[in-house]
Amino acid sequence: MNPHPLFTTAPAPRPARPAAAGLQRLGPYRLLQRLGSDRHSQLWRVQAEAETPGLLLLPIRAETEAESALAAPGRLGRIDLPGLLRGQAVDLGLAGPAVHLPAPPGPTLAERLAPGGGPAPTLAEWVGWMVELLELLAALHEAGLRPVGLAAHTVLIEPPGRARLLGIELAREMDAQGEGRREDLRLAGLLLYRGIAGHWALDEPDLSRAAARLDREIVRLGWALPQPVPAALRAIVNRAVDHEAARRYLAARSLARALRGWLDSHRDGEPDALNLLLDRLPAAGHLPARADLPQRLAALHRLEGQRLDAWIELLFDEPALAFELLRSLGAVELAGQAQGDDITTLRRAVQLLGLSGVRQAAASLRPWPGALDAAAAVALESRLAQAARAAHLAERLCPADHDGEAAGLIALLQALGELLMAYHFPDEQRQIETLVHPPPQPPGVRPLPPELAAQAVLGSSPQALAQAVARHWGLDEGLQHALQALAVDRPVRLPETRLETLRCAASAGGELAAGLPPQAVEQRYQRALGWTRGEAAQALAALGAIRPPAALPA
């Protein structure tokens, strides 16, 4: 195949400059200034007969016969996205197809980054531009198309600062193997990196050339950057350019969601994942009922009038039902504080609702396993069992002069975020686990902590999800604070209120249920909870003696 007359040397992007003497004209156009180029396209400022200067986007011709063809005009006509710039498709003969845009609404991103192009974009500005571009990219991918190429010269910044994409008329059909989608995500990750790092990854301005090196060279944000980068945003960027393809984002919409979540948090708004979760709750419920709940309710029916301990046992074992009681009763009846540091318990919920009320709450739960597939259902069951174990341990480890049932309830609430993630975002949860427990890493590259891994995937964290739902239920600020488990990498301080003591007991139960060594947990909490020596190990042994091992997570 004959080479494209303008792409014989595939020059890297450079500051805008006048056209070379030998390329003064191309068809009816006079070339005035080249604004950017890479292996896929060049952008020129041109002038046609009796017209003011405009922009001409020139794609290279297909490098091989197997490369995907231009999309049919009918398919393009059905795409109506506000961030796509519509131009006039032209045929330049041997030079190939092009797009002529008579009135560009603003500078290209390449011009914006050039010396004298204006102040450096802030992190929030760049992330906002990337969110817009990625949502456009996602819409094209979902239509089975891909753009001519994502590069600094194919993006225009329209006042007052909206990112728009050139070249929809040159969109190509997506290949069946999805290689085009993966290539676009590599380009998007590298463009994101440029804005956050302040320089091109691998010192290569041609994103397509840098993308070809991404699988064999490590690209990560350094620490000497033009402006401080928050840890959550750093995790998102590093994942987007990870040299292991399996750890990168799977779709443009996933990366857009993570960035929007960070941006919303940065602007003191609700991350996109939280809004998505709240939208799903009416249809999917908070959590599905475990498979044995009907049988356990029937057994409790025969014990009506007996002590309430059996009910508390059931509610600790069935977090979905405990949470439904919280939601149905509301903050005033169930979680109200007295004198600033006491809370009522699930026992109070059972007393207020009675057997019929508990049955009604159980009937409102979605049957197991909801919308989950088999693998996701197994993962959720394991997390539910771990949460139940944490609640029982918290009750046992709570000081005798405090309400152990309240400590168990708080332990369930501290597991709420992880449970919501496992039920509502199972695919994202698997991605998070891949980042937390990855295959062997290159020297100097460490696995991500769970909180940062969740930020990198969803732009939010399990804790933020739990906080949003707690506010949605109407729980007071005291309980919203208590449902934040204590950080395992920080020392435990002596609690100053009864509620803080319950929070400590709940956190200790959660750490033991997660498999932390009893000796380490005891050392952390001994002074705060007044434990005697060996109390954590004794609580574990007692729980194992009275509960069937099969009900506990592996």
From TrEMBL:
SUPFAM superfamilies, A to Z: HD-domain/PDEase-like (SSF109604)
Domain HDOD, chain residue ranges per copy: 287-489
Matching PROSITE patterns: HDOD (PS51833)
Coiled-coil residue windows: none
InterPro entries: HDOD (IPR013976), RNase_Y/CdgJ (IPR052340)
Pfam families: HDOD
PANTHER family for this protein: CYCLIC DI-GMP PHOSPHODIESTERASE CDGJ, PTHR33525
Protein name as catalogued: HDOD domain-containing protein
Taxonomic source organism: Aquariibacter lacus
